Amino acid sequence: MQIYSEICSNWQASVDKDLIPESSSANASSVVQGGLSLNNSENLDFTSPSSVSVWAEQGFLVAFDRAEKLSYHVRDMDGAAEVPDAMEIIFQKALEVGTTAAVDEYMENKGSATTLYTKAMLLLSFIAGEALLCP
Asked: 17 φ, ψ to 5°?
């Protein structure tokens, strides 16, 4: 369990500092089309498939680089250790985003609520699509 804590701490530190040393694709992907940051999806137009595609692709590259760096810590782990279910993580994030959207809607912040509802629906649509492919 100690190794999980160490991996999470390392990952969180890299996210908080937004530092990913020696990573060409991550450094190239810190800004997306139109100057949108990967960490700031509020200004992203989720109704534009090309904009969302670029944002998702760049986010994937950053996540891949972080995962690659953290994989060195995983080598020493017990093979019988349980890994969190990716679909559950995505579902929980969709609920979190949807809840934030509901609060924004209640506070009459319609623009932010619309963006967040769209993001939550995209996450849930992804889960629904992947569920059909799971055994």
From this structure: -85, -15
